[in-house]
Write a structure and sequence with these properties.
Elements: H1 2-30, H2 38-42, H3 44-57, H4 62-87, H5 93-96, H6 106-110, H7 122-131, H8 134-145, H9 150-168, H10 177-184, H11 186-199, H12 212-219, E1 237-243, E2 254-255, E3 258-259, H13 262-270, E4 272-278, H14 286-295, H15 318-324, E5 328-332, H16 342-349, E6 353-355, H17 357-360, E7 365-366, E8 369-370, H18 372-387, E9 393-398, H19 425-450, E10 456-462, H20 474-484, H21 490-494, E11 495-501, E12 510-511, E13 515-516, H22 520-528, E14 550-551, E15 561-562, E16 566-569, E17 578-581, E18 587-588, H23 594-612
Parallel strand pairs: 1-9, 1-10, 4-12, 4-13, 5-6, 5-9
Antiparallel strand pairs: 2-3, 4-11, 7-8, 10-11, 14-15, 15-16, 16-17, 17-18
Length: about 625
């Protein structure tokens, strides 16, 4: 009886068991406590529904349909593994829409693969091996021709469907996507997200209700009548330098007596340095940082800014603001302008001109284009040309050599790593940033030699995190804890430096007020003496405010934010979230309020609503 039952129902039992093993691998990577018996009730019902449809409708090639379904579900699990390894969130169909970018960042993607991830494909290789052997083909055809009892199919499908609904519905209101996926089951969560996005639309706030006053009230901003440092650098050029993957813990850091970033250390000591500063980038990472800094708007919810409808709009921006005040504007990047849809980005935010790979060529190639040395060497003469004109200029310059996975050519090594760091992500990161700092030193020298240093307000900041905590192994976690003096966590990962060189103002040496990339626009506008009161913005002038509220998006659960004391990470709702101290990443019982939680979500919605209601560009 048992043998007959197995023979008749073999495919559905075999493939369900195989996929259960794969789901266990995904759970082990994504969820802190790994797989448990609960996956039997959260993952298997989904398999059963898919395979029951095959059993019900397939009369021929049944095993082939099983294999195709197995491959499709395997690819979903693999995508979840890879995406979590870098971003720390569950991949959904939104992320898969950006799959074309994977081929362009191949080395970065491949570096995330851990050997045991490939376990999920072992059975597929096994099946393919036997698929073309006549003896096994005949046997599989014979097995595939056996039909499951229709009553049994109806019962197990109904029970499985009921379990899926039971897993999804009680947990659909949770704001934490990781907790939601764990309670629902990964595949149920994927399906729920697909349907929820078509039925649960975010409220669009009427643009008439969105004003600078309402934004400032939510953030707790009181605009001073006479702001400090107003117009201190009026008429000066503005140069903004975006540093690839540069995190704040590198500033002042030494490794076995070696300064990792000596040039930036000196820059931070001799100019104004904001140490409590955070990235606002989303799924688009570098290009999202470009968008936020130049617009002072937040990135969209489920996609990079450059892949969104935002690119059809004439977004209020720093280039537009400065153009209205007599500035020429240009942006410099050694990658192809088509990557991450930057061509549309630069049109949306109003840059006059861009320099990309077509200008820099592909010499001395690192990562996705010419090295930082080539970038800076070719950029300084262009800045000098802009400077001889009668009008001031705004230039944005983006470094790229220290891009994940941080593997630079040996002839670019500028420091010797301790043996224990060799072959680790952390070691590669430190060495790449040490090279980037070396190239930055040459850039700084070029600015000084050309006279631009004394005639320009110059801004330096990191674009996004470089060392994802989800990627580090236990050995690397111990090493980074040894370097920074406490357990590496969220507050360290998102903390980036912000340094400003003002040729005219006597600015404080160090500022501890909490800030983010969203705040750069109003801060530099104040120094340049250009009013932003008639241009909607979601940042604040960090030289004239002592409090801040910074909503976070994409890398943490929905509803997360930063205030003056802590980084709040959402639980299922506000009440069961956690506050991580900005000083040492320790968890505290307080540090945020539900009013701030509500305000942060409102700010994100206002930003999105305002941009969506802007007229399309002509």
């Amino acid at each position: 009886m048992n043998k007959r039952f197995i023979n008749k129902n073999g495919p559905i039992l075999l493939f369900s068991f195989v996929l259960l093993l794969k789901s266990a691998v995904a759970w082990f990577v994504v969820f802190n406590d790994g797989p448990s018996w609960s996956i039997v009730f959260t993952e298997i019902p989904f398999f059963i529904i898919v395979f029951s449809l095959i059993e019900w409708f397939a009369t021929k090639r049944k095993i082939l349909y099983y294999m195709i379904s197995n491959l499709f579900i395997t690819l979903i699990y693999f995508a979840v593994l890879m995406y979590y390894k870098y971003y720390g969130v569950i991949a959904t169909y939104h992320a898969l829409q950006q799959a074309d970018k994977v081929t362009k960042v191949g080395e970065s993607t491949y570096s995330l693969i851990t050997p045991y991830y490939l376990f999920v494909f072992v059975d597929i290789v096994f099946f393919l091996f036997f698929m073309f052997r006549p003896k096994y083909i005949a046997r599989w055809k014979e097995r595939g021709s056996r039909r499951m009892n229709r009553l049994v199919l109806i019962v197990i499908t109904a029970v499985s469907f009921g379990l899926c609904i039971f897993n999804i519905w009680p947990n659909h209101a949770s704001m934490n996507e990781i907790k939601k996926a764990k309670s629902m089951g990964i595949l149920n969560y994927e399906v729920y997200t697909l349907f929820a996005d078509t039925t649960e639309k975010d409220e669009i706030i009427n643009s008439k209700e969105i004003s600078q006053k309402s934004i400032d009230e939510l953030k707790g901003i009181i605009t001073p009548v006479s702001p400090q440092y107003w117009g201190a650098d009026k008429g000066k050029n503005l140069i903004v330098v975006q540093m690839e993957s540069f995190q704040n813990f590198l500033i002042g850091l030494t490794l076995d007596g070696q300064e990792i970033t000596p040039n930036l250390n000196k820059l931070a000591k001799e100019n104004i340095y904001f140490s409590n500063f955070y990235t606002n980038a989303g799924q688009g990472t570098t290009s999202d940082a470009e968008f936020v800094v130049n617009s002072s708007f937040y990135v969209p919810k489920n996609e990079p800014a450059t892949s969104s409808v935002y690119m059809k709009k004439a977004v209020p921006s720093l280039p537009r603001l400065l153009s209205e005040n007599g500035y020429s504007t240009a942006t410099f990047h050694t990658n192809d302008v088509e990557f991450w849809n930057r061509k549309d980005l630069y049109k949306a935010i109003g840059f006059d001109k861009y320099y990309d790979q077509s200008f820099y060529g592909d010499e001395d190639h690192i990562a996705f284009g010419s090295s930082d040395e080539v970038l800076f060497d070719k950029t300084v003469p262009e800045l000098t040309k802009l400077d001889v004109k009668n009008e001031p200029f705004y230039a944005m310059v983006m470094s790229m050599s220290a891009h994940h996975p941080f593997r630079i050519p040996e002839d670019k090594y500028k420091m010797k790593l301790p043996e224990r760091y060799e072959g680790t992500l952390l070691g590669d990161y430190i060495r790449a940033q040490n090279y980037a700092d070396f190239a930055m030193g040459q850039f700084l020298e070029g600015l000084k030699t050309s006279g631009l240093w004394d005639d320009s307000l110059i801004v330096f900041y990191g674009d996004h995190q470089g060392v994802p905590m989800y990627t580090l192994g236990s050995k690397e976690r111990d090493m980074i804890e040894e370097l920074i003096g406490h357990e590496y966590g969220y507050t360290d990962m998102f903390n980036i430096p912000f340094i400003m060189h003002s040729p005219s103002a006597s600015l404080p040496e160090k500022v501890d007020v909490t800030g983010g990339q969203i705040d750069i626009l109003p801060t530099v506008a104040n120094l340049l003496g250009i009013s932003v009161q008639n241009q909607l913005h979601f940042g604040e002038d960090l030289l004239n405010q002592q409090t801040n509220l910074i909503p976070l998006r994409h890398f943490l659960p929905s509803g997360s934010f930063i205030n003056d004391k802590s980084m709040y990470v959402t639980g299922n709702a506000y009440a069961d979230g956690f506050n991580y101290s900005l000083s040492d990443n320790t968890i505290s019982a307080d540090g945020s309020t539900e009013t701030q939680f509500t305000a942060a979500q409102r700010l994100l919605n206002m930003s999105n609503s305002y941009i969506l209601q802007l007229p399309d560009q002509q």
